[in-house]
Amino acid sequence: MMLVDTHCHLMDQQFADDLDDVIRRAEAEGIGRMIVPAVDLATAHEVIRIAEAYPNVYAAVGIHPESANDVPASHFDEIERLAKHEKVVAIGEIGLDYYWDSAPHAVQQDVMARQIEIAKRVGLPIIVHNRESTEDIIQLLDRMNVAESGGVMHCFSGSENDARRCLAMGMYISFGGPVTFKKADDVRAVAAVIPDDRILVETDSPYLSPHPFRGKRNEPSRVKIVAQQVADVRNVSLEALAAQTTANALRLFSKVGL
Ligand code: NI
Predict the structure, then answer these.
(1) Ligand 1 center to 90 CA (angstroms)
(2) CA 78 to ligand 1 center in whole angstroms
């Protein structure tokens, strides 16, 4: 059995002291590939360094909406250059965040749109972060014709209707630790109805640890707990869910080799 953690921030300071052990634990649990998204230009360099050091780790480069203020034009050029690295498999994470609201909405939208253009030019999918910005995200993805790049709605927590609108644009839907939370019946209901060929799993490490580790540092080995929960609500075995989500991850992130 092999699982792919499609979203883990292994460059986070919380992994600075034991990254070797974290990756070894994940591999021992069958997490055969890990994708590490950056949040700005500095972390883009870091995630590539980690991907170069570990054969099963891949990188995504991009500017997160919380870092969207005052981005120099040169940073977009550098993201595009880094995107051509052999272990960079996506542009991300990018998106809109109206909860933290670190930059004006128009600025966030511009930064996201410019990176979708990069994704199209370099032929990579996007990894989308959405917090309290669903309507604007869906409109922007539609306006930008996101099907040309493809991508994933990471750590999805929206409604079934939102999911269907994203699926209609060709997007994949990824579930993380919150699908295991006690009060997350609505998230589980959505996870139950995503088509077999569009569903992914992730941890968003070091954040969003699944139950019963909620509040503790998360790590890629725990994507197995997420996968088990998703398998349960879909009435399939963990092995079948793993095979399906791994095939999906390898199709969407086509630069990830087997
Ligand atoms: Ni993230």
Answers:
(1) 13
(2) 20
